[in-house]
Amino acid sequence: MTPTLFFDFDGTLADSFNTAISIINILANQYHFQSIQQDDIALFRQQSLGKTLKRLGIKWYQLPQIIISARQLFNQKLQEVPTFHYWLPILKQLHQKNVQLIILSSNSEDNIQAFLTQHQWQLYFKQIIAGSSLFGKARLIHKTCNQYNINPKHAYYIGDEARDIKAAKQLQMTSIAVSWGFQCPEFLQQYQPDYLIHHPEKLLEILGIQPV
Description:
Rossmann fold; six-stranded parallel beta sheet; PGP-like_dom2
């Protein structure tokens, strides 16, 4: 059976960490919460999203509007956001093996589609499931699996945050955490992902695909 891979976008496929920090600091003035200083970054990479929001002084009722504003700013800064360059040969091999790739993200579909087009990656992804809430990924994955007749037990979720691992475990999917994203590998390991990888090529090994 050909597996299905669900990918987080920011911090997993898109090297958007610095852009995200810049956007947060712009919005801090607009929505009156604490900005992120350079000395804070190591701490924020070692804690949950909920704790980060609390430390910044972001109220839950502010989140929907902040997310909308963040997506708009991301669109303006899209040209600045690079890929993790080592993904391209892996995506090509997965595509050649007819592995189904789906992006699931709280970013917007327009932003993700523009990013994929900008880097000529649109060929490799079957579907973009975008606009999820920061904490609603499991529900969207479940809905997508039902829609496309995907058995979650035969699917994988690749992401860079603890909430990605939690969503995968909730649906009995195989969780693959990546070490190069928003949260540091030591923190991610506490959530016991099925795999913690340091290079995308490891994904081929997990799937039993011989690297070319």
